[in-house]
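Entry 14. Structure prediction run on the chain below.
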Amino acid sequence: MYEFVEGTLDEKAPDKITLNCNGIGYFLFIPLNCYHTLPQIGKKLRIYTSFVVREDAHRLFGFLERAERDLFNILKDISGIGPKTALSLIGHLDRHQLFDAVHASNARLIAKVPGIGKKTAERLIVELRDKKFSTATPSSGIQLTGEDQLRFDAISALVSLGYSPQQSERAIDKTLKTAENELELPLLITNALQQM
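Output returned:
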């Protein structure tokens, strides 16, 4: 129904914002990871939207990128997921990490997201594969190449060793930033473990 809403950021919280569009305030739920990249109150903002209608509520969900909104629309329609869990998934795993986890059958990583158990994570992997997740939203930029692929393979490896996604991401990013030469995956993982 709505592709995007553009206006002035009026209020913000970690899970929601109010956008003032010509005197009309739009209340939108946002993923957790979106909050830290929001502009200051009073600044102009464009939010890509998904309007979810249920018997008991009509809710507007907002995303800074169209690709995240498209992914949300795929996730929320999976049996047993719904909008709240889909938002939690996007708020804790970026689309590249989720893509990587699905194609590596890394249910353990997905199950670390609040509200997702092991069985739900396994079902999600099957469902997304059935939906041809890698090509379901060509505009989303989900395909990984080069350093991105190396980064997410390394993060997945650390998570499989028991580290949190956040710890793993920080260690890998720090290692890549300080590396003088291009690293192979085993060396990248070894150097990142020293950052833990």
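The chain has three domains: 4-64, 67-140, 146-193.
Filed with the rest of this week's runs.
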